[in-house]
Amino acid sequence: MKRLTINEWPRMWRLRLETLGRAAVRHSCPSAIVGGCVRDLVLGLEPKDWDVVVEGQPSVWISDVASSLAARVVEHPRFMTLTLHFSDGTHLDIATARKETYVKPGSLPTVQPSSLSVDALRRDFSANALYFLLSEGTLFDPTGGVADMGQKRLRVLHDISFIDDPTRLFRAARYAARYGWTVDKHTLDLIQSAVAARVPQTVSLVRLRHELFRLLEEEDPIGGLRLAWQWGLWTYWDPRWEFTEELGARLKSLPRQSPPAHRLAVLLSDHPNRAEEILTRFSTPVDLKKQVSAHLANFIRKFNGPIY
Fold this sequence. Notes:
By secondary structure, the protein is an alpha+beta fold. It has 14 helices and 11 strands. It is globular and about 60 Å long. The termini are far apart.
């Protein structure tokens, strides 16, 4: 595992986060970068996204930070989050440390302010409950995430995690495949129990579509798709879909940087006559549906019929 030092971060992000951290200190609000960006930094990878969590109410003082960084602020009051949008097209998500409760399985959470320690407990996996404290320049690891990553182990943080938010089932497949981690036995037992109880059906089809696309956006989506199949998750996208090694080989034949729409067309290529119905059922945006349909039509023209 890599020792974190802010001086090694990309200069642009280092300046932004140092500015935000100093402002948080002035307002007595402990702040930290958190989640996937810390996970990737510990693994020696460059984060794709940066997220900050702050104790207290950053909305009170964030406008000054945004002004100094020439950023635009968009607030999301229901979830106590806000986003700084920069002129180069990048953004920084900032959340209030919180406790979350779920009224019913699969619902969006109700949030209330809390501490960083409590915030850690509402996260999905130990590897995503890592905090780099901006004021102190130290790693805060309250759930043992670094040790789990050292053992290449994916571990869920509480027993009803997949019931509260079934999209974490798909996330587990994605992380395990991406990093080559083993899902620990208790976590796998909870996954199997959640699927047997059909908890993914409590999630909207739009959110399920998002999870499918997140898997398809992986540099190599095959491992995550295979795990999702083995765990019985595909039926919640469409009970008629199936993963085969032939399908995996078909996906592997695509250029590595193929867009998700291209990869989704491959998934639909065995059943082109149902493609429109499936895309409509998922409330697929019109532009995205056109992209998928165009790729699918190219497949059919190229092979003079469905690919088998």
